[in-house]
Amino acid sequence: MATGTTVSILPCGAMSTDITWLLLAPGRAMRTRQTKDQPAEWVDCPTHCVLVDTPDGRLLWDTSCPRDWEERWAPTGLQDFFPYDKVSEEEYLDSRLKQMGLSPGDLDYVVFSHLHFDHAGNAQLFKDTNAKLVCSEKEHEWCNTFDGPFNGAHLKADFAGLTFETVSGDTTDFLPGVSFIQTPGHTPGSMSMRVDLPETGTMIFTADAVYMGASYGPPTVPAAIVNNLEQFYSSVEKIRGLAEETNATVVFGHDANQIHELRTAPEGNYR
Ligand SMILES: [Zn+2]
Question: Using CB atoms within 10 A as the burial measure, which of 42, 91, 187, 192 is most buried?
Answer without folding.
Answer: 187
